[in-house]
Amino acid sequence: MPSTGPTTTHAGRALIVSITDQLVHGEGDGGAGALVTELLTEAGFVVDGSVTIASDAGDIRNALNTAVIGGVDLVVTVGGTGVSPRDVTPDVTGEVLDRELPGVAQALRWSGMAAGVTDAVISRGLVGVSGSTMVANVAGSRTAIRDGLATLIPLAKHVIEELSDPEI
Q1: pLDDT band at 168 (very low <50, low <70, confident <90, very high)
Q2: Domain residue spans in the chain?
Q3: Which part of the chain is the MoaB/Mog domain (predicted)?
Q4: Superfamily of domain 12-163
Q5: Cβ(50)–Cβ(37) under 8 Å?
C-alpha cells in the first residue's frame, strides 16, 4: 500500500561559516550561526555544522575550501562583507568561486533595502559556485540574516537542483 504521509526530502547539505572580529576579544558570533542554522533547517536543509572563525583571509579560505572539498551543497558565510579593511570575506570568496552569481548577490542587497535597511547596499557580499557548491556571503546583523536568507533560500534550492541534475 503506498504511503500517504509526507515524504522526507531535504534541500541539500549546508555549512555555516561565521566570520567575526569578536574572537579576538574572546567572544563568539553573537548567535549568528545558530540563527542561520535554524532558518536553513526550517527550509529543509541538513546543516552539517557551523564554525566561527576570525576575520582572517587564510582562515576564511581554508573554511571555504574544506566545505567545497567536503561536498556540501551550500555554504553561507556570515559577516565580514562591509567596507572596512578587516572585511575580507568577499575578497577571499571571489578567489574560491568558479562562477559568480551577481544577480543573487544583488537580490540579497535589495531585499535588505526593501526591509528598510538602507545600509544593505554597502555590503560587498558575493554569491557564486565553486565546483558543485553554492557559496553565499551574508552580512552579520540579525536583520540582514533574516532578510537575506528569506531571499537566498529559494534561489539556493534552484541552483543546487541545477548543479545536481546531470541532464542540465
Answers
A1: low
A2: 12-163
A3: 15-159
A4: MoaB/Mog-like domain (3.40.980.10)
A5: yes
